[in-house]
């Protein structure tokens, strides 16, 4: 038990869990994704370097990681503020902002956005994938990393007094690297001390989510308070999905709005459409997992913003919820996915 027990920690301080309302559990409001730049095909160099404009939008949606400018979401704070006001008007209450160390977390900007928009914003502690780890992080012991993560939650991060309310997204690759294993153990140890929510970015392999859960379990982590992100690009076989679901984490479908033919980080993957994502949610609900599902858009590039012809942060509330209701998911189940499950996850033990 800590002073945080029974509360949710936003960038503006502690709130009662009942205040959160509809919650997107995996978004970014300011970050850079330069770590994951993917060079364009030889014939696409011109379009990749051209300014973003209407005639390039189809190419950009298909190749979002091959345009350097598209990766700089941190440049769009004014557009993001507008979109958060839209999200509020659409009935949104809370956003979990998963930007961690390595992809340019900016807590003062998050605090200002929360003040300007009245959306509850919850910031993330810890580290993204290995390629973004500093030499210092790589050399740190599990104990040292644990202390840093705990301090980011209890005292504030990046030299500010702004406190994180979740650990993650904790980045892992496939195969999981040594440095990432250390961060996972530190995450579990910090979670044991704090009773806090954890959220994981798994590597792009169907075996990755279960391997992460095993590492967390061995280190004493609380899997029932852990979200596994990005299942929509990771586990495709329904049998394998149910096997993973039995391990007890929250199951997150968080790439709503992303429809692309070729997924450059794993060309084996057929990225699902939003309709297919809804079908998978309906399947999981039918199998009895309505208390374990959370959803989001994971906006991390400019082209996902409405300013650039994208779907924005309100897409789920405006378009996906009606689709869910028309595909056998009840209003009560939608409310669990958008309100109750995030609330339980985000409340400190
Ligand atoms: Zn993310």
UniProtKB/TrEMBL annotation:
Record's keyword annotation contains ATP-binding: no
Recorded superkingdom: Eukaryota
Keyword annotations from UniProtKB, A to Z: Hydrolase, Metal-binding
Coiled-coil residues: none
One Pfam match: PTE
Binding site for a divalent metal cation 2: 169, 201, 230
Gene Ontology molecular-function annotations: hydrolase activity; zinc ion binding
Keyword Hydrolase included in the entry's annotation: yes
Ranges that cross the membrane: none
Binding positions for a divalent metal cation 1 per the UniProt entry: 26, 28, 169, 298
Catalytic reaction list: N-propanoyltaurine + H2O = propanoate + taurine; N-acetyl-L-isoleucine + H2O = L-isoleucine + acetate; N-acetyl-L-methionine + H2O = L-methionine + acetate; N-acetyl-L-valine + H2O = L-valine + acetate
Cofactor comment text: Binds 2 divalent metal cations per subunit.
Cofactor(s) in the UniProt record: a divalent metal cation
UniProt xrefs under InterPro entries: Metal_Hydrolase, Phosphotriesterase
Family: Belongs to the metallo-dependent hydrolases superfamily. Phosphotriesterase family.
Protein name: N-acetyltaurine hydrolase
